[in-house]
Specification:
By secondary structure, the protein is mainly β. The protein has two helices and four strands. The structure holds iron/sulfur cluster (2 copies).
Length: about 70
């Protein structure tokens, strides 16, 4: 059976740094950036991209729909 790996893209300008996706991720993939976006929020990014399994828990909890999840067969 093919393994599935995931990747997420965060809309960094829409993100308000609420941390919900960071907490929701079962694989500790996401962290809040030390850099702020144009609105002054520390946006979410993939700090451990290799651990993403594409479960979409992060996208599900994001109140602003900033996260798009991609699944890749490897
Ligand atoms: S898709 Fe799942 S594993 Fe990947 S960053 Fe989101 S919550 Fe974490
Ligand atoms: S849940 Fe959405 S708004 Fe909140 S930190 Fe994550 S990407 Fe940003």
């Amino acid at each position: 059976m093919a393994k599935v790996k995931g990747a997420v893209v965060v809309d960094t300008e829409q993100c308000k740094g609420c941390d919900l996706c960071v907490v929701a991720c079962p694989s500790d993939v996401l962290s809040l950036s030390k850099e702020a976006n144009a609105k002054g929020y520390n946006y979410s990014f993939m700090s451990s991209p290799d651990d993403c399994v594409g479960c979409a828990a992060c996208a599900y909890v994001c109140p602003d729909a900033c996260i798009t999840v991609y699944k890749v067969k490897i």
